[in-house]
Design goal:
The chain has 19 helices and 15 strands. It is an alpha/beta fold. The radius of gyration is 23 Å and the shape is globular.
């Protein structure tokens, strides 16, 4: 059966159920219908008569099922289960939301580490293990579904049963094990989406943001989507089938930690950065190198310049080892994309490249762990990534963005990128000029431009009068009555 035939069959089942009045009782949503039926209707909404209107009406009904179920449990004194789906420690965006909710005695909060089933097995095992260790080490209520010996996953029954509320951090849900994909959930489950990254990217023909961000089927199935900026809220309002009715401007949760300035001791700095024994750690600058993963020509968005400068970074780290300490922070997908694109012949060769970094006296690699303390203690960053151009704005440090012709941005991205330094990814002289003048000498001529851009586009706390976490937690607790 083709995908089109599969979705057509689900739409037919949905229409039969509507005709029979099976969606009329808010207290008893049928378990035989899932969010997969709503996804199927989304795909067919453009060819059905009044398809968008029908979709919105059914969406409203399904949301009422979930809200009734949650409130009813809370009023009856039952614990409301809320599961956070995590795919990567580096892409964990909701720490403060989790910590605030776990204190509420009405809730049972837990994290499910989901392996990325679309990756090569070794890569899947490595990412899942690093992510599991991160959550375990930091004292979260974390539950495991992956058996690496058999390379299989258990379902919700292995982690205490189906939750009432699911918090998603990635829209690419088909990379998760099937039981944890939203289209497998019954309609009584309430879903909300807190993005792991800031939305700044687009494709050259300007279709990526519309199709895969603002109007992806995933965001049209959420009870709430939390937007990082007013510009992206406007994108949902313009392009989404639901016209932004389920989208709120909360700001970007991950950046809540930067709302109050924190002073780090030198012992804390030394635990984050590596310094040569003979060097004065107080006098050395700290520089992040953060390459994107989009190396293959078929990528929906193309940012990566890593093929042009892969070994230049090692040269730079060696040259400045008495004045700069480096952190190499690759995108979590770079390992498998670097091999898939044949930049490296094998995962072993890529891992040897990382070992070259770690063998330097002034450099270390950071993969699957939080990078917020790294941002806060750094003096600058060089990169060609997407989300970081927004996230790094919160620490008010200079950034050099590496360009290539295929790069494109949405409205937010275009505003942000204009506030940073730029050179081509293969412009080694331009890169060193940034290192010498901006990082080492402190000649930061773009500082005022960054301040202006931040105030206009990213100051959510100033606009909302609260942190993003407080905004979201208030919303979720409102479901309980």
């Amino acid at each position: 059966m083709s995908a089109e035939e599969f979705y057509a069959e689900r739409v037919e089942e949905l229409m039969d159920g509507i005709d029979k009045g099976e969606f009329s009782d808010i207290a008893n949503p049928l378990e035989s219908y899932s969010y997969g039926h709503l996804a199927a209707l989304f795909y067919f909404s453009q060819v059905l008569e009044n398809g968008n209107k029908l979709y919105e009406q059914l969406y409203d009904r399904i949301m009422s099922f979930g809200k009734y179920h949650v409130r009813n449990k809370a009023e009856n004194g039952e614990k409301v289960k809320i599961a956070f789906l995590a795919i990567s420690a580096a892409e964990w965006p909701v720490d403060t939301v989790y910590r605030m909710l776990e204190k509420d005695q009405r809730l049972e909060c837990f994290i499910v580490v989901c392996p990325l089933m679309d990756r090569e097995r070794g890569n899947r095992e490595k990412t899942e293990a690093q992510t599991w260790d991160f959550f375990l080490h930091h004292g979260y209520e974390v539950r495991r579904v992956y058996d690496k010996e058999k390379d299989i996953c258990q379902g919700w029954e292995a982690v205490g049963g189906l939750p009432d509320i699911v918090v998603h951090a990635t829209p690419w849900y088909h990379c998760l094990p099937e039981p944890f994909q939203i289209d497998s959930f019954p309609m009584r489950v309430v879903n909300c989406y807190i993005p792991y990254g800031m939305y700044v990217a687009d494709s050259m023909e300007k279709s990526y943001a519309t199709k895969f961000v603002y109007n992806k089927e995933f965001v049209n199935m959420q009870w709430k989507v939390y937007a990082d900026s007013m510009l992206n809220l406007s994108g949902y309002e313009k392009y989404q089938l639901l016209h932004g009715k389920n989208v709120s401007y909360s700001g970007y949760v991950k950046m809540d930690c930067f709302q109050e300035q924190r002073d780090y001791t030198m012992d804390e700095v030394r635990s984050i950065w590596k310094f040569p024994r003979e060097a004065s750690s107080e006098n050395m600058k700290r520089l992040i190198i953060a390459p994107h993963h989009s190396l293959e020509q078929s990528s929906l968005v193309q940012y990566a310049t890593f093929a042009k400068n892969v070994y230049f970074w090692l040269y730079l780290a060696e040259k400045y080892q008495d004045r700069i300490t480096f952190i190499f922070k690759p995108h979590p997908n770079l390992r498998w994309k670097a091999v898939e694109s044949q930049l490296f012949s094998s995962y072993e060769e890529y891992d040897r490249y990382l070992e070259q970094w770690n063998s330097l006296p002034n450099a270390r690699v950071v993969e699957e762990e939080s990078y917020l303390d790294i941002f806060a203690t750094s003096d600058g960053m060089i990169m060609d990534s997407a989300s970081f151009i927004g996230e790094y704005m919160y620490v008010d440090k200079p950034l050099l963005f590496l360009t290539r012709e295929e790069q494109a941005f949405n409205n937010l991205g275009e505003r942000l990128i204009s506030s940073y330094y730029h050179v081509k990814g293969e412009d080694y002289i331009g890169i060193e000029k940034f290192v010498e003048h901006v990082i080492l000498k402190g000649e930061d001529d773009m500082k005022d431009e960054r301040h202006s851009t931040f105030a206009e586009t990213l100051d959510y706390a100033g606009k909302n009068g609260c942190s993003a976490s407080e905004f979201i937690v208030r919303d979720i607790l409102g479901l309980l009555g």
